[in-house]
Design a protein that fits this description.
Elements: H1 3-10, E1 53-58, E2 63-70, E3 75-78, E4 90-95, E5 106-109, E6 113-116, E7 121-130, E8 144-148, E9 176-181, E10 196-203, H2 205-211, E11 223-228, E12 242-247, E13 250-259, E14 269-273
Antiparallel strand pairs: 1-2, 1-4, 2-3, 3-8, 4-7, 5-6, 7-8, 9-10, 9-12, 10-11, 11-14, 12-13, 13-14
């Protein structure tokens, strides 16, 4: 069954910001963020940047183990393996967070003043959906959906990202991409307090295949590879998070982080190609 048809059957079409034809977020609204409206003097992440990034929370202490992305007012997209972790149970999703040490975040922006976010929101997980042909051992079809227990009310700090309209065969024209998540900062298992912003460049699939030739999981035509910059990089906890491109200041998710070698190894990270799964 098509994933879009599934969403039509499961969701209420009256929600603001959702298209009545397929119930993905309307492209008049998705993928936009206030932080693109002004020029920043550094590359650090803004309080309202990437407002679709979700934390996947586990067990009674609600630890962050994976990342996801809000794609409409009721569903979060993530990796299938994040929903069936051994001895861990995904129980909730947190949206609108910037600093995990605070429930409401405030920052001082030069020439603007203090900006405070809305309080973070947590949603119980109503249903977990994984691709029927996902293999935990070898990693193909590592894609899943989380249905939230209630509808999301969009704001400047919580809003959905766009998904591709069709195949993204032209993505090679967008060399620069971005990744975000709540993973570790280093292989020393240093946790992050702030939402991560990782700048990366697309890596040709053939080169990526050769680099992963002896790895237990093969790189295929269903993957996209990207190499992180030297300052920040993907790590444990970022899996399930989005690989993103900005097209005229509208962000689109082209990939989903599925596997990588150890943090900061210099190897490309491997993402599931979202366009290949629009008919899932």
């Amino acid at each position: 069954m098509l994933i879009l048809v599934y969403l039509v059957l499961m969701l209420n079409i009256s929600a603001f910001g959702v298209s009545g034809t397929n119930l993905l977020a309307s492209r008049r609204y998705c993928g936009y963020q206030h932080s693109d409206d002004y020029v920043r003097k550094n590359s650090s992440i803004s309080i309202d940047e990437f407002p679709w990034i979700a934390q996947i929370l586990y067990d009674r202490y609600r630890n962050i183990e994976c990342t996801g992305s809000l794609i409409n007012n009721r569903y979060v997209l993530t990796a299938a393996h994040c929903l069936i972790l051994p001895s861990r149970n995904a129980t909730a999703v947190r949206l609108g967070d910037y600093d995990v040490t605070r429930s409401t975040d405030c920052v001082t922006i030069s020439d603007i003043g203090e900006e405070c976010s809305d309080p973070v929101e947590e949603f119980d997980i109503e249903e977990k959906i994984t691709h029927r042909y996902f293999s935990r051992e070898y990693g193909p079809n590592d894609i899943g959906l989380v249905r939230l227990s209630r509808s999301v009310v969009y704001s400047e700090y919580i809003r959905p990202i766009c998904l591709p309209l069709s195949d993204n065969s032209g993505i090679e024209n967008y060399e620069d991409v971005a990744v975000s998540g709540w993973g570790l900062l280093s292989r020393l298992r240093e946790p992050t307090n702030l939402k991560k912003k990782i700048l990366a460049k697309l890596t040709p699939n053939q080169k990526c295949k050769e680099m992963y030739m002896n790895f237990r999981r093969p790189v295929t035509q269903f993957h996209i590879c990207a190499t992180d910059d030297s300052e920040t990089y993907t790590c444990v906890g970022d899996f399930g998070g989005p690989l993103m491109i900005s097209i005229k200041n509208q962000w689109e998710q082209i990939g989903l982080l599925t596997f990588a070698k150890e943090c900061g190894s210099g190897f490309p990270s491997v993402y599931l190609n979202i366009a290949k799964y629009l008919k899932w």
